[in-house]
Amino acid sequence: MPETIAKTNNNDDIVRLTDVHKVYQMGTQQVRALDGVSITFKRGSFWAIMGASGSGKSTMMNILGCLDRLTEGKYFLENQDVNTMGDDALSELRLRHLGFIFQSFNLIPQLSVQRNIELPLYYLGWDAHESANRAQELALEVGLEDRLDHRPTELSGGQMQRVAIARALANDPDLIFADEPTGNLDSATGLQIMDYLTRLNQQGKTIVMVTHEPDIAEYATNRLHMKDGKIDQIE
Q: Which domains are seen in the chain, by residue range?
């Protein structure tokens, strides 16, 4: 077992996992998707989580993104004890501090590019004028300022992923989760997306990415390899 980054309680730590377990009940059998994971992610770092199918990397992402609850252990996000939060508090935490980029984009097909980007701001209670301005700024940043009135079905895969990135940035999150962000893209477009994520990290955003592609993982500054629900290696 490799030595993980020192788990200190200071403002440089954005994520701290201590002896985290996640157990799923499958009929009469228990499946240990995470089995004693302890690690700290520093603010401004860029992590790639890797591993074979069934290694625990997707479960790790779901726990980190507060999309699932751990069975045992401790998870501190921004020095807040996630274990003690109710569902409403977790939803608020996700909405205000986290951004998500998915392999399947998860855009709402009935909404325009602008409305898709604005969606988190609607739930945050922004007024329409402020939301529109923010969406237009982000569309310009990702090179889609001329696509604001288009719907996702009128866009290429790379354009849809850029809309997803703009949406993930709408709330100015502290931490961005990217789940196989290049998985549905051709190689050239995937590299463009990774270049953009790299620039976001250089601007100070903390990024945690799941990928099975070694060349994509090379964009991260840190790589975590999972095996059988445990941390197998850290680079």
A: 43-69+84-234 (3.40.50.300)
